[in-house]
Amino acid sequence: MAKEKKFVEAITSMEEDFAQWYTDVCIRADLIGYTSVKGCMAIKPAGYAIWENIQAELDRRFKETGVQNVYMPMLIPENLLNKESELVQGFAPEVAWVTHGGSEQLQERLCIRPTSETLFCDFYAKDIHSHRDLPKLYNQWCSVLRWEKTTRPFLRSREFLWQEGHTAHATAEEAEERTVMMLNVYADFLEEVLAIPVIKGRKTDKEKFAGAKYTYTVESLMHDGKALQSGTSHNFDDIFAQAYDVQYTDRDNTLKYVHQTSWGMTTRVIGALIMVHGDNSGLVLPPRIAPTQVMVIPIRQDAEGVMDAAQKARGALMAAGIRTGLDDSEKSPGWKFSEQEMRGIPVRVEMGPKDVAAGQAVLVRRDTREKTIVKIDELPSAAAGLLEQIQKDMFERAKAHRDAHTYDAVTYEEFCETVDKKPGFVRAMWCGDQACEEKIKADTTATSRCMPFEQIRLADTCVCCGKPAKHMVYWGKAY
Amino acid sequence: MAKEKKFVEAITSMEEDFAQWYTDVCIRADLIGYTSVKGCMAIKPAGYAIWENIQAELDRRFKETGVQNVYMPMLIPENLLNKESELVQGFAPEVAWVTHGGSEQLQERLCIRPTSETLFCDFYAKDIHSHRDLPKLYNQWCSVLRWEKTTRPFLRSREFLWQEGHTAHATAEEAEERTVMMLNVYADFLEEVLAIPVIKGRKTDKEKFAGAKYTYTVESLMHDGKALQSGTSHNFDDIFAQAYDVQYTDRDNTLKYVHQTSWGMTTRVIGALIMVHGDNSGLVLPPRIAPTQVMVIPIRQDAEGVMDAAQKARGALMAAGIRTGLDDSEKSPGWKFSEQEMRGIPVRVEMGPKDVAAGQAVLVRRDTREKTIVKIDELPSAAAGLLEQIQKDMFERAKAHRDAHTYDAVTYEEFCETVDKKPGFVRAMWCGDQACEEKIKADTTATSRCMPFEQIRLADTCVCCGKPAKHMVYWGKAY
User: Fold this and answer.
1) Is the pTM of this model over 0.90?
2) How many angstroms separate the CA atoms of B289 and B346, rounded?
3) Chain B residue whose CA is closest to A77
4) Which CATH topology does B18-277 take?
5) Same fold, A18-277 and A294-386
6) Minimal Cα distance from A255: which residue of B?
7) Residues A126, B80: C-beta atoms closer than 8 Å
8) How far apart are CA B271 and CA B287, in angstroms?
9) Would you state the CATH architecture of domain A406-476?
10) pLDDT tens, residue by residue, A412-459
11) Which element (helix H / strand E) includes A24?
């Protein structure tokens, strides 16, 4: 009695059910698997390889700015967590508590880190003595845990992978400079590597990180018109330093509090990759992040010369620095095309007996399905050029989609109708009062995404209450 | 009122107190910091950079054998852990239990992974259907937690970093082949990269992994004559597959159990690096793993041309692919030398006004303190050659030390006296009975390290009981 082999079904179309389409892609592109651990997923090789490329790209960028990697414990004693009141209130409802070690009940319970400000503060308090010890520019790659009620692959899971940078500086100015610098690293990475255009801005007080003075964010727009916070950078000023007593002796021999920042990017951005670029055939990966950039698929691989030519093509592409696979399995070419498309591999090279005879190969773009026939000698340069073009086009396409789904509203009626009818960002003026933010959320479910660095004065009054406007805000429904 | 700056004291000598010497090196070489989390350390940049290099080297070797990286949850539901009885008995006394999520008590408690066989089995049971799905060659980089009573930096801490490979195969032969293959990867890495000679062998049943059929190990000898298990590779046969029901449909359409392996290497090997190569001036890092391979130290950096020459030297070294630092701080040259030695940087380049005038530089080896003067044009090639030589010499020196501290014993009296008087490995014959192993441990505190692949018949009878001997065993006191 054999186990039944699952029949490979078509995925739900995104127009029919975007949420189901998303889940289907996660599963069918082999990015994740479900586990017996509620709210936690297994990241499979195809998903983890994307994360490894994200890590390599970000890590290099961090290190170029002087950041060093470290590792802090995953457990936080309760008394340590409790020192900063806003942080506790923000995170206490969603932490997991360890109460027993082996068969013994612990005298003090510990939580699994939901984020590590407390641990870095505790460490800095011991490790920083003098102005000569500053700045500290530390980062760690790890997993964190937040006891979420409802979860979705990559977007919201109890445990997720991320990096968290934690820096300490002598002055408020330096901390502010670092906060913005790291936001720019994220923006650059998202646009240049993931081909995801972003809006850079500051979060309102309501939406900022618990305990931060300012939170900066990069916001991106998914294909369904919902926003996704894709990376955040926080300026803590000396708020945490006061709570955890992180001081240094300055040049003038007086004790001063350090000024801190933290900044993080998570496996959520894999969700963004799927929802910005994916289509009804599956994942579409930008070439710079794709674990496999080109898949060579022989047609009639039993025919003379085909496998040989395919292997040579793969070798030539790899020699040109292109991450190349060769699908020499026993599946039909059509099946292999579907798999390559589902997995989002940017380019496939088709080679059949006729191509071999003609000394050519067929290049097919994953994003547009456009075909090009090239001489076999020109394959590596043609593929490299095509990958660059795809990267550029994917960004432009995502930007055009974002811009076409960004609306302005001056009156509250306009605002509510836009949020209701037109999925996307709505730009509108705001007085700065939290009451208006809360009313907007209650009336429309849209939240303030950010006050963009690039402000445009759309009107003189708040879209909600009519009082004088202070900020232009991007609003939207969000993941 | 300024914080007191700690005076930099000399470290304890290893002859005086090896354990204190070890801790001093960990702290003074800036590898770790203490935290407020009992039994857990902070790995500082100098320590983490070593781990990053270890990861890069191992990860590349794993991938060359077809291994793919994945990520499984950090939490294990109690019922999942309980399915394999030996594993539970082995790990239950030392796991940390999560009992609350936010303010709610959980219906089922979860432990933080002490190792992830259970999670991989659970995953494979869902993910493996047919012989076409095999083999699965998965690995993950993560931290694990074991509730240890007494802890020491790197050697034994409640949380530690590691990689754990978990593979599933169609046949017992393939699983055995993979188990040995990965042990060889570890041995090769330890000898070629960390310059640590190893004994490869199989653990006795008493010392094997809970639930494994066979555990293979690479054992190394520390400077104080104690052994350190430096990497293990386990063959589970179909023991876990039966407990977790991991089956596949074979070509003959019948259901069969898969055969599994797991293998791991941890931050412990950083402890081995310290204790195999270190000296009374601090850490000594083999060039291939050293985050900084050469440190350029200008002498009288205010003198004309010195800083310029030092910067050029650094540039030339980096252009030659050598990881090079430049210490242009305001400390004295002597202080800088001490720091470079404490941190174990394999080579320093001294450049003073006289050297600049003579167009030369002074190379000083960290391991032997030997000085060489080279023409500035030849600096990159001379440094590269020296680094290769140091790598080779460090391995040979460690091997000579290991061999000089490996003793043979035929009678029990010899055996006990050797363990008592001569720190190192003792080789002796064993009948295969656990009773003798236990008696030896009780009498001497030495444990069986392994039954080496290379067997020598030292005698016909067991060193302990006099019954016919089955195996030659390496015994030793161990970390």
Assistant:
1) yes
2) 10
3) B37
4) BirA Bifunctional Protein; domain 2 (3.30.930)
5) no
6) B2
7) no
8) 17
9) 2-Layer Sandwich (3.30)
10) 999 999 999 999 999 999 999 999 999 999 999 999 999 999 999 999
11) helix A18-28
